[in-house]
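Appendix B. One record, verbatim.
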Amino acid sequence: MYISDFKYHKPVSIGEASQILEQSEIGLPLAGGTDLLVEVKKGIRKFSDLVSLSEIPELKIIDVDSQNIYIGAGLTHNGLVYSEIIKNKIPAFSEAASKIGSEQVRNTGTVGGNLCTGASCADTAPILMAYNAQVELTSHKSTRTLPLRKFIISHHKTEIKKNEIMTRIIVPIQHKSSGASFVKFGLREASSISVASSAVMIEFISGICKNINIVIGACAPTPVISKNANKIILGKTIDELIGNSELIESIVIAAANDTIPIDDIRGSAEYRRHLVRVLTKQALALAIERTKILN
């Protein structure tokens, strides 16, 4: 379709980019463009100014301190897949990034773009929420940080303001007694959009679960934290969670009931409810196995 005339900007700093967005009638930031350009071609998105973020170096940096991993929002999915820091410290996030789209999409699409699109099927959101990640939003006036679970409001709706750019994702350093996993189901092997996904982060202290976070993706307008499944698991031992099939069944049923899945072209609500049970069982078992490997 025909795209209306627009101004293309290529700022070299966050402040410059923010000011352009603030002053523009309808300004859009452009990172990888794998979602944005498709929406533009379909006529879903309109803009007067397109602001490229490709020349802002701080958006592509990974830093680590004693408490957190700081991931530049401009890093591509393959940048996460092949980062030794990400693979060693939060491997389930690297795995989730490896399951996004095709090789071409992963070479171009960015983690910040994946989150800011706010799509219910975004694969990086559930595992980052399981890790209790925060996002950093920066304008030329200020910087603020908020939990990812509060950043995504609904399908394609987030807390980002007109003049803000997502600059970093902040992930707490995981304890050695914890394990995490991400499992998804799509309708084909390659380039699949999630019909349902499950992310799990679990931590044991002296063999007892002291921290658990199960997050279900692609089944509701936002990723869903399964509070009831988490409540069942908390305080249980590794042996109970491995050897008790009735307990596992109660956990996955709680996760499915918490989700309230949607009907769409990729699957019915009932089909998604079944998938949530299957995927959560797989993700929980894998996360528990990883705590045993680490210990």
